[in-house]
Amino acid sequence: MPVRIVAIDDVHAAEHVIREHVSPAPLIRSYALERELGLAPDRRVWLKDFGSTPSGSFKLLGR
Q1: Other Cβ atoms within 10 Å of 33 Cβ, number
Q2: How many CB atoms lie within 10 A of CB 45?
Q3: What is the DSSP-derived secondary structure letter of residue 42?
Q4: pLDDT digits (tens, 9 = 90+) for 13-63
Q5: What is the pTM of this model?
């Protein structure tokens, strides 16, 4: 069986179908990590909260 290489056009074509089934993970700003890293006031640290996405046997991860 030949291996089919997926192209970016294939991904774009499937996006509207996949988007209906994947819940995006919300972003949460980490003030504590910004302070710990000593970042300048204009720099931000954002973390994806995968704990709030629906789960079952498998957890689908979207952007």
Answers
A1: 13
A2: 15
A3: T
A4: 998 888 887 777 789 999 999 999 999 999 999 998 877 766 665 666 655
A5: 0.55
